[in-house]
Design a protein that fits this description.
The protein is mostly beta strands and 388 residues long. It is built from 3 helices and 34 strands.
């Protein structure tokens, strides 16, 4: 570290450097050239960040202003005269993750390479999820290097099944629609006053419907074809936008009763998505104040605890509550969360790009600001629909 301070000290006496690169890890960034508790975000990875301004001295050298108005204290951030560019696109990189689950109740992970096969290995249990990025052999035994959590034996984890759940584009006039949410769902026809099943329908299929009353929905544009209400999640027309919404503003409405997320551009409906949530998920109107491309949730000490590495596309709208991707279950919308709103990984990536704050390359975490505000999130819980 003394060498880094010396190097950045030399650079500070020369002309303003063109760019800076990260030597190691993820670096905190700040809205002002001073270290504060409320950090602005984090940058990580390869590439070179354009330096717009050189600031005063900091603990490890100099403050440098990079894109998005962010300041970074040199140390592991080294100024160079190379042209900027080739920062990593973390949003797409995490999208290619292959997630794994445990093969037995207990899994042992080593935080450092030197901890492998030692008493320093940590036992994780309950619900588990891992993101291995590299496979290697150690004394003939296969191991994985994990993205964020250390090392784990390849024999103790196995891949999760890919969840092929995607939201659908829709207009208000096309609603209501339903998502099929049962693996054993059927299409039904009405013959001589009775409903008879005649063909299976895929889980997460989407159909526009009418509600004639009773236990079935009638599928629009398909004469005499029905779906059981108990096999579906219902997406009715949502209420009007909040008065504060501007023209073309990106925002979302979450129906916690039906577990449907509506994405809007101003007054225009863009997309619908199927979610999972919980009774403790609070209603209200908020704004996204913090976005993380990934976050490891280590909550083994609580009841119904879990260890989930690199949970993708996390968007906090309220302290302790976020919208994020879920790779560990395929039970939309029935899965009861710990309070967050779950989306499929595919849908959470789309929403991460759709909602503000706009996320630049090279960043893995970013707070909303006046110049780059977070998107509005409205959560509501309408009365339950009666099924006769």
């Amino acid at each position: 570290m003394l060498f880094l301070i010396f190097l950045t000290g030399i650079m500070s006496t020369q002309a303003k450097p063109r760019s800076g690169k990260i030597l190691k890890g993820a670096l905190h960034i700040y809205q002002k050239p001073e270290i504060t508790y409320d950090k602005f975000g984090k940058i990580r990875g390869k590439g070179r960040f354009k330096i717009y301004e050189v600031g005063k001295k900091c603990k490890y050298g100099r403050w440098y202003k990079i894109k998005n108005g962010a300041w970074v204290c040199s140390g592991w951030f080294i100024p160079t005269d190379d042209p900027e560019g080739k920062e990593e696109d973390w949003i797409n990189k995490i999208a290619n993750a292959n997630y794994y689950k445990n093969t037995s109740r207990n899994t042992y992970i080593a935080k450092k390479f030197s901890h492998i096969n030692s008493k320093k290995m940590r036992r994780v249990y309950k619900q588990q999820g891992f993101y291995p990025v590299e496979r290697f052999l150690l004394r003939g035994v296969p191991w994985y290097k994990l993205f964020d959590a250390g090392y784990v034996s390849a024999r103790s984890i196995t891949p999760y099944k890919f969840i092929n759940l995607r939201g659908v584009k829709a207009k208000r006039k096309e609603l209501p629609i339903v998502f099929v949410v049962r693996k054993d769902a059927w299409l039904w026809k009405r013959k001589r006053g009775k409903f008879v099943k005649f063909n299976k329908i895929d889980k997460y299929a989407v159909r526009p419907v009418k509600d004639p009353g009773g236990p079935f929905y009638k599928i629009k544009y398909a004469p005499h074809v029905y779906l059981k209400k108990s096999d579906t999640a219902y997406a009715p027309n949502p209420p009007a936008p909040p008065a504060s919404i501007k023209k073309d503003e990106h925002w979302i409405d979450i129906d916690l009763g039906n577990n449907i997320l509506y994405a809007f551009k101003g007054k225009r409906l863009i997309k619908l998505m199927l979610t999972s949530s919980a009774q403790r998920t609070e209603t209200g109107i908020h704004r996204v104040y913090l976005k993380r491309v990934y976050q490891t949730y280590d909550q083994l000490r609580i009841k119904d605890g879990y260890f989930l590495e690199a949970v993708p596309y996390v968007q906090y709208y309220m302290l302790g509550f976020s919208i994020h991707g879920a790779y560990w279950h395929d039970d939309f919308p029935d899965h009861i969360t710990h309070g967050c709103v779950n989306l499929s990984v595919i849908d959470s990536k789309w929403l991460f790009r759709f909602l503000g704050p706009i996320f630049p390359r090279g960043f893995v975490e970013l707070r909303g600001s006046k110049k780059n505000p977070g998107g509005l999130v409205r959560l509501r819980r309408p009365p339950k629909q009666k099924t006769e």
